[in-house]
Write a structure and sequence with these properties.
Helix content is 74%, strand content 2%. By secondary structure, the chain is mostly helical. It is rod-shaped.
């Protein structure tokens, strides 16, 4: 950059949108000029001064170099804070989704759309036990009605038990 002419430097400044005159170390500017340097509105510059972000003299002028440095520091700190805040926001989002899912499950249960798995399993266990007892009683009931001998009754009982074991083994 040392070999660059002032005209070339001014052209580059014009391309990047900087004011054409370089700042003096002690140059004081008003809110509108500082806003031009920072790419902000004069109202935002004044607000940043009230917040203590930008240094300002008692007569409401800004030391240009110090104000630009302060604003850059403020912008860097904000960017770091946003990274930390994004992690926190992700955790809050995860917690909110978990809470919403929990509420959806509770609502589905209260509407009767969702049943308790343990309760359903216990109900089916009772039904299967009753069904098993009723099916195993068939050979003796049929034998009593039809006058079957013991061998035939035992054969029916054996076939029913084999069928029930086959079903139990498959599931």
């Amino acid at each position: 950059m040392e070999n660059m002419t002032q005209t070339e430097a001014a052209e580059i400044d014009a391309l990047v949108g900087l004011p054409e005159t370089p700042p003096d170390d002690g140059e004081l500017v008003d809110a509108a000029d500082l806003a031009d340097w920072l790419g902000l509105t004069p109202n935002r510059v004044s607000a940043l001064a009230r917040e203590g972000v930008l240094p300002r003299t008692p007569d409401k002028l800004f030391p240009l170099k110090a104000a630009v440095r302060s604003y850059a520091d403020h912008a860097r700190a904000g960017a770091t804070g946003r990274r930390v805040d994004s992690d926190l926001a992700a955790e809050k989002l995860r917690a909110a989704k978990a809470t919403a899912e929990k509420l959806e499950i509770q609502n589905a249960k209260s509407r009767g759309d969702l049943l308790d798995g343990k309760q359903v399993a216990n109900e089916w266990r009772g039904i299967i036990t009753d069904l098993r007892a009723a099916v195993l009683a068939v050979p003796s009931r049929v034998a009593g009605r039809m006058g079957l001998d013991r061998a035939t009754t035992a054969a029916l009982d054996s076939e029913i038990r084999d069928a029930m074991e086959a079903i139990a083994d498959d599931h």
